[in-house]
Write a structure and sequence with these properties.
The structure is a single chain. Strands 1-2 form a two-stranded antiparallel sheet. Helix 1 crosses helix 3. The two termini are about 20 Å apart. The protein has 2 domains: about 50 residues, no CATH class; about 35 residues, no CATH class. The relative contact order is 0.17. The protein is about 50% helix and about 5% strand. It is mainly α. It has 4 helices and 2 strands.
């Protein structure tokens, strides 16, 4: 939770007006994707205890799992909290 607060502060301070990026924005290094990545990296440097959260959904049961990383499954957002409420 601390990581997200730091990341939000840095994003607002250093990248005002940037929109929430999709995974494609981050992969394609769009302006919004780069703003997110910069804020994320700075937040990691400030709080090295941060652990990346991954969320996946089992296609047969539709259960959502946190920290069960599946590189073949992409929710389309780098924000796990978002798709916990979307699906």
């Amino acid at each position: 939770m601390l990581h997200e607060a730091i990341e939000s502060y840095i994003g607002g301070k250093d990248h005002p007006g940037a929109q929430e990026p999709t995974n494609d924005d981050v992969k394609q290094k769009t302006q919004d994707g780069e703003a997110y990545q910069d804020s994320h990296n700075q937040a990691n440097a400030i709080d090295p205890r941060h652990k990346q959260v991954f969320a996946t959904r089992d296609p047969s049961t539709h259960n959502v799992y946190l920290n069960k990383y599946d590189p073949n499954f992409d929710f389309g957002s780098p924000n796990p909290q978002e798709f916990l409420f979307k699906y």
